[in-house]
């Protein structure tokens, strides 16, 4: 089943020069392709919408601040089971728990700055794509 998903390469990935490596891993997966890509700086209003379900949690403010700390790369990936696949490619949030070969397993350093966001379901992908790429939906 062909799907579309949102991927955000977070400020730490951009700062550390990992954009090409991460994009390359997505592009090398047979059947997946990137259909939109943009470097941008996120404003608080966008982040508040994106992370609305986390309001009130202890990590919310540090997360919003981190995501505003530098440019991010927002991209749309399409392909067979791409939502599940990119989340597997990303690995668990905790880089110690992430397997070697995953993005976080290979490059992650701390849990809060975890390199990549990928939609976790078709519903989330649809909502997030409308927020980040309204012209595509």
TrEMBL record:
Span of domain Nucleoside diphosphate kinase-like: 2-137
Reactions this protein catalyses: a 2'-deoxyribonucleoside 5'-diphosphate + ATP = a 2'-deoxyribonucleoside 5'-triphosphate + ADP; a ribonucleoside 5'-diphosphate + ATP = a ribonucleoside 5'-triphosphate + ADP
Source domain of life: Bacteria
Pfam families associated with the record: NDK
Residues holding ATP: 10, 59, 87, 93, 104, 114
Active site: 117 (pros-phosphohistidine intermediate)
Keywords, ordered alphabetically: ATP-binding, Cytoplasm, Kinase, Magnesium, Metal-binding, Nucleotide metabolism, Nucleotide-binding, Phosphoprotein, Transferase
One example GO MF annotation: nucleoside diphosphate kinase activity
Keyword Flavoprotein: no
Annotated localization: Cytoplasm
EC number: 2.7.4.6
Entries under SMART domains matching the protein: NDK
Entry keyword Cytoplasm: yes
Cofactor(s) in the UniProt record: Mg(2+)
Function of the molecule: Major role in the synthesis of nucleoside triphosphates other than ATP. The ATP gamma phosphate is transferred to the NDP beta phosphate via a ping-pong mechanism, using a phosphorylated active-site intermediate.
Assembly and oligomerization: Homotetramer.
Family: Belongs to the NDK family.
Stated name of the protein: Nucleoside diphosphate kinase
Species whose genome carries this gene: Streptomyces sanglieri
Gene: ndk
